[in-house]
């Protein structure tokens, strides 16, 4: 069963839109492990010099992400450790480390 990583309230309207609110921690992404298993695990929270992003949507694609899960590589790219699946993410900055100068909360 997939655990949601946000404390969300959904309001489905005629236009099929929804609203999600500030995420709860810890963050729980979909990982592929070095031995090609899928798991949901806690991801590290931001480190110094980083921002915390509430990912609202991301894509998991058959050619790249699923191929990487099954084969451990995409063409010449081989990742030997655990890797979070998905790319082309969109979200909102919810926290900014004090040393970050090029991002703001809400951006």
Keywords:
mainly beta, two-stranded antiparallel sheet, disordered N terminus, Quinone Oxidoreductase, Chain A, domain 1, 107 residues, three-stranded antiparallel β-sheet
SSE layout and pairings?
Blueprint: E1 30-32, E2 38-40, E3 51-59, H1 62-71, E4 73-74, E5 77-78, E6 83-84, E7 87-96
Antiparallel strand pairs: 1-2, 1-6, 3-7, 4-5
Keywords: Metal-binding, Oxidoreductase, Zinc
Protein name: Alcohol dehydrogenase-like N-terminal domain-containing protein
Cofactor: Zn(2+)
Describe the structure.
The structure is a single chain. A hairpin with a 2-residue loop joins strand 4 (73-74) and strand 5. The chain has one domain (1-107): Quinone Oxidoreductase, Chain A, domain 1 (Alpha-Beta Complex), CATH 3.90.180. The relative contact order is 0.21. It is mostly beta strands and 107 residues long. The protein contains 1 helix and 7 strands. The strands form 3 sheets. It has a 3-stranded antiparallel beta sheet, with no helix packed on it. A two-stranded antiparallel sheet has the order 3-7. A two-stranded antiparallel ribbon has the order 4-5. It is 9% helix and 29% strand. The model is unreliable at 1-21 (pLDDT under 50).
